[in-house]
Amino acid sequence: MNKNIDEILQLKVEEIVIKGCTEGLKVEDYSEIREFLFNYRNYKDNLYYKKLENVLCNHNSLRYYYDDDYIFYLWSNSSLLPFVLANNTHDRIKLYSTDSFMFLCQFHREKTPSLGVTNHVNLMYCFGCGFGGNVFHYLQNYEKISFKEALSLVAEVYNLEKADVKVNKALIDKYKESIMSNRYLELIEQGIERLDDRKDRGIITSYDDSAKKAYNKNLIQRQAIIDNKRIEDYPKDKIYTKVYLDRVI
Ligand SMILES: [Zn+2]
Q: Less Cβ crowding at N or C end of the chain, within 10 Å?
């Protein structure tokens, strides 16, 4: 590696880190990083180049593309769980607490599940390798796609308002199938049963109500995809239990 290039990239990382830790990064900073990376695109394997790429993946950079409302709209109308389930190759999913599902990690080799997806917060974290984040981080890293493509993919999968980037149809189909799968329904039902059981035994935490709402959200999202409807077409003030769905749809 050209030592001079290495130093230039390292200095840029230090500058960005200091600015990010002190005054915070603004939209213009992200534009500048993007331009900087473009100029040094022949050095993509450089460690510091990769660090700068990670800065661009940071949630704060999302404002460059779309306003926060749109990102929140996609995030809150989607569920991370079936995405991780779609790429799970071992049937060793364990349910902990109210709604934390532990998978074998898809980002490092392991024999005991340590990749946790907590349904009601719609986030993941691996206790083995430290990988964590939301559905967009997951898709970016697992599918090796850009942030914009991850937004589009989530929008397409969940029949939400579209972003302006085309995504691979095979990916859309893979995740839609996961959402419609019986295995996903089993996980949701297992979670609901766990909550009911806890209630019967008088074990109720502050998370239980949120967990129940999240399972209901999973069910209505799943039903919307099966019916090929928009999630907005369903009444939001109902409790979407499976029994409810069977009765009214
Ligand atoms: Zn891991």
A: N
